Amino acid sequence: KRWLRLATDWGSLIEPIKDNVPKPIKVENPPAVPELGPGEGALADNYVFLRSVQYRDAEPYSIVSLHLARDVYNRAPKQFQQHPALSILASLDAPRIKHAHQTLIISGADPETADLLKIGLGAPTAECRCIVIDEDDQAIYVANIIYRSDCIKLHMNLLGDSRPRHAPNNGNGDGNGDGAGRQRRSRTGRG
Q1: What is the mean pLDDT of the chain?
Q2: Strand runs (DSSP E) across 10-167, as ranges?
Q3: How many CA atoms lie within 13 A of 170 on its CB side?
Q4: What is the DSSP letter of 46?
Q5: What is the pLDDT of residues 52-67, one digit of tens each?
């Protein structure tokens, strides 16, 4: 099984999706603008709405409903139609991205989702909301993505970097794990 890792940083989000194949879904009367909540930026002047089923190895694994700022879309319209929009956005020189985040909710497949992803009705799904905000605080990319649960994996680095961590207390009383605390106390006359 090939897993799609749900990313917790920008580079890890872009890399695994760049080779996906989006197949457009026609939408009658798409919403003109996305609904934005607190912390999701301000509305851009205009948006293009793109909806697709994303495929990997000829298997459907996600449904993407995307509002993309029209001025961003106009920089590479053909690429945005043929490739995952987030990977194209990441490859552009402009706009400058100020903030990006995604939120994950576990849910169940409704009839349309089950049909498009070829899964059972009510099967577990992961719903992600991904927001990209530019340097002018405009939400230039607002996507609601539904993933099949049998092909995703959430992996988080709980330390946030690669520096070694020391045990909180190794018996020397200073908590840094290097044994220097006992020596420092001895030299000061308090140990």
Answers
A1: 81
A2: 21-24, 42-43, 47-56, 59-69, 97-108, 124-134, 138-148, 152-154
A3: 10
A4: -
A5: 999 988 889 899 999 9
Amino acid at 81: Q
Range 58-67 burial, b when 16+ CB lie within 10 A, else e: eebbbbbbbb
Other residues' Cβ atoms within 10 Å of the Cβ of residue 31: 11
**DSSP character at residue 31:** -
Cβ burial, residue 34 (10 Å; 0-12/13-18/19+): buried
Task: Render pLDDT for 140-166 as a digit per residue (tens, 0 to 9).
Answer: 999 999 988 887 766 666 676 555 545
Give me the phi and psi of 7, to 5 degrees please: -80, 155
